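seq:
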Amino acid sequence: MPATVQRGRWTLDDRAESFYRELQFDVPAGAGALTVHLDYDRSAGVLDLGCFTPAGFRGWSGGARTTYTITESWATPGYLPGPIEAGTWRVCLGLHRLPSDGLDYEVTVDTAPVAAPAEHAPPPVTERPPRRDLPAEAGLRWLAGDLHSHTVHSDGALGIDELANLAAAVGLDFLAVTDHNTVSHHPLLPAAGARAGVVLIPGQEVTTDRGHANAFGDIGWVDFRRPADAWLADVETGGGLLSINHPLASDCAWRQPMARRPRFAEIWHWTWLDRRWGGPLAWWLAWDPTVLPLGGSDFHTPAHGRPLGGPTTWVQCADESGVLDGIDAGRIAISAGRDAPVLLRVGDELVAVDGAGTYLVDPQERRTLVTGDRVTFPGAPGPHRLETPMNAVVALAV
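struct:
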């Protein structure tokens, strides 16, 4: 079958009518591969790119790619390999950024066979630093992790094994891999995590132009094109957890209407650059003070200079297999990094570790000076935090 080409021009009226647009094309029986190429002026706008088949979702790469290939045995990261079923397939485009005079596009679809890319051996396993000695309830321990990261399966720079090794190198016990609007990375996580000695939690960042949310758990693909209330319902039905992401982060701030709010929100995100700024705490209290706070670095590439595990989310659980259960139960603490001061709720007490010289701040904004490296306080209910004398937040506990 010769390559097919569709051309057109998206306008501001098109975007106002519907953010997502589908271009249909027919795939004949017996096709062994399918390659799609999107061409447009990337200096003038941004078009997101994805794929749906007669059976449903087949992959998403957003604005990170302009080309993808799908075959029965392999696919471009972000896309799902499998049978190339005959019938009507759809290229899905997101009209993310359009100039005022519109944006020309050209989509080429080719079913010619494509050679599989060369396979690479996993990188050598990295030695991890010793775990911190932290007080915990009987039968439980505090595990260090990061709940927001990306790989080459969306717009990250590292492969899954490389990311897992980096997590081990900085001393993390678990890492949620939350590539944008796809689950193509999920089948690869268990083996890569086992090689590196880190639990890789399957996740997906449900990504739209009006806000992002992390869906945690092996729950299948969440349709980002539906209303946010549907995300929450689908995630809960699948036994996962949904968290609003970086609600104050520039053009990714949370603006999705919801009739019912998720139980979790990424209060501590790397964009909290100056932790003397009270915006994230103020948003949390105004949105819903009973929401459980999470932390995530939103790691994409070492080139950004933002460390994996900054911030670190601590979860108190029996072992690595119970991380999501621990989060669900609210056994959570957040610190600026794995080795930074941390405030832990242990039974009916709060314990400040390595926080000498900070203030313990309670829900009524009362301050108590922390005078040692391991100091215990009565565990009154509600969120507490550690602050420096300059009012910079260094640790959160719920």
